[in-house]
């Protein structure tokens, strides 16, 4: 994996690179923690060049006033779209965006039957009933019982029992050594 230097990330933060390289860097950030660290350091270094907000609450109020103003302008431009604008997440929509939202709503209602959730539940239920009636589950249970009986006949201890036995043997040997020292 190719890593980018701190200087490259500083150029990215200062918006001094072309769009293709910018996209490459953004994609790379998802996969590389080392470069993410360089990017965050570049952001911190560039933070001092940003303007300082003297009154953050007034800044927020100004932004919200601008959003309300744009929303009002959109509602007056498309009065028949008022409901779509009110229910949208983003207050500033263009006409193609509104049409895209409407097309997505319509597309969600016209899914083929095999893409609907109920179809998948019915398919799972039918498969379960078919496997039960054909005896697959019963044969699996019989197979598991036969394996268990085979292990009992061999009298082979489980891994857990082996570990416990070795631990007790080790502790007994320690006790014997302590008894010999006394």
Please summarize what this structure is:
The chain is an all-alpha fold. Helix content is 75%, strand content 0%.
Could you walk me through the main structural features you see in this protein, from its secondary elements to its overall organization?
The protein has nine helices and no strands. It is an all-alpha fold and 182 residues long. The two termini are 63 Å apart.
Low-pLDDT residue intervals, each spanning 5 or more residues? 85-93
Q: How many beta-strand segments?
A: 0
The number of distinct helices, counting runs of at least 4 residues, comes to 9
Distance between the termini: 63 Å
What fraction of the residues are assigned to beta strands by DSSP?
under 5%
Q: State the shape.
A: flat
Mean pLDDT: 80
Structural class: mainly alpha
Instruction: Please give the largest β-sheet.
Output: none
* H/E element order: HHHHHHHHH
What gyration radius follows from the Cα positions, in whole Å? 34 Å
> Level of helix content?
over 70%
Question: What descriptors fit this protein?
Answer:
flat; 182 residues; mainly alpha
List strands and helices in order, with pairings:
Layout lengths: L5 H8 L5 H11 L3 H15 L8 H22 L4 H6 L7 H15 L7 H18 L1 H19 L4 H23 L1
Helix pairs in contact: 1-3
């Amino acid at each position: 994996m190719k890593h980018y230097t701190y200087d490259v990330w500083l150029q990215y933060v200062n918006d001094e690179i072309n769009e293709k390289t910018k996209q490459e860097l953004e994609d790379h950030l998802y996969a590389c923690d080392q470069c993410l660290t360089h990017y965050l350091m570049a952001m911190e270094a560039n933070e001092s060049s940003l303007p300082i907000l003297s009154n953050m609450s007034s800044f927020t109020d100004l932004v919200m006033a601008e959003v309300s103003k744009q929303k009002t302008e959109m509602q007056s431009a498309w009065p028949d779209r008022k409901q779509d604008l009110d229910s949208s997440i983003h207050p500033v929509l263009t006409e193609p965006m509104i049409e895209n939202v409407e097309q997505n709503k319509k597309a969600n209602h016209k899914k083929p039957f095999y893409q609907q959730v109920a179809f998948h539940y019915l398919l799972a239920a039918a498969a379960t009933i078919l496997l039960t009636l054909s005896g697959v589950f019963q044969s699996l249970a019989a197979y598991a019982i036969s394996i268990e009986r085979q292990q009992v006949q061999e009298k082979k201890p489980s891994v857990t029992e082996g570990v416990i036995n070795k631990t007790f043997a080790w502790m007994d040997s320690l006790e014997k050594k302590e008894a010999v020292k006394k």
